[in-house]
Amino acid sequence: MSEKAREYHIRKEEAKRREYRENGEWFKWGVHTANYHLTEHGENLWQVAKWSGITIGAGTVLYPLLGGIANAEGTHNLWSLSDPAVWDVLLVFGRSLYFSTVTFTTLGYGDYHPVGPTAKALAGVESLAGALLVALFVFVLGQRVAR
User: What is the mean pLDDT of the chain?
Assistant: First the structure.
């Protein structure tokens, strides 16, 4: 029975979304569209996990390109490699993955920090997105368990 309730809820929310678009209520349409793509109207836990992975992956790729990250050893970005070997590039992206994950989860250990204004802005956006996506994950999980 819960699967039928889930399907009905999604169909009802999609009908609302179409109605908002047809009536020109663009803000409500935008909110419902974002809700659909992020959580499938609060019904799909894997959708939230997918967007979380995309956010961490984007940060992993962008930090080395937008100024890098730094720690006590120095700055780690693709531009600071004098003779980039495959291992060095993998090490930069490994550190970037670690920093992106710590930033997304808002743990903020402090062992690495972004370098430059663009990387700092990216860290702020990723931290905010992480907090929102973790909250959505808990919300959807709670909704699924409550049913």
Answer: 89
